[in-house]
Design brief:
Blueprint (H helix, E strand, L loop, with lengths): L4 H4 L7 H8 L2 H17 L5 H20 L9
């Protein structure tokens, strides 16, 4: 535990607003909910590859939203 202290406390280098977001599992829950919502619409996939294409597309879309800083963490 002593050796990992720096890694465990690394989140404290962020601002207070970011620390609150880092402690939360809300982004992960939202991500899982969005994937579930999009896959339910299709229902039955013809192949594993088609499922992976859809999920990959959803993850890329969400990643781009996060990178632009529209939600969750901003660089300001």
């Amino acid at each position: 535990m002593d050796e990992a202290e720096h890694d465990v406390l690394a989140y404290r280098q962020f601002s207070a607003a970011h620390r609150r977001q880092l402690h939360s599992t809300n982004p992960l829950e939202r991500l899982n909910g969005e994937v579930k919502k999009r896959t339910r619409v299709v229902g039955l996939f013809p192949s594993e590859e088609s499922l992976m294409r859809l999920v990959t597309g959803v993850l890329i879309e969400i990643s781009e939203t996060w990178e632009t800083g529209k939600i969750y963490l901003t660089l300001n």
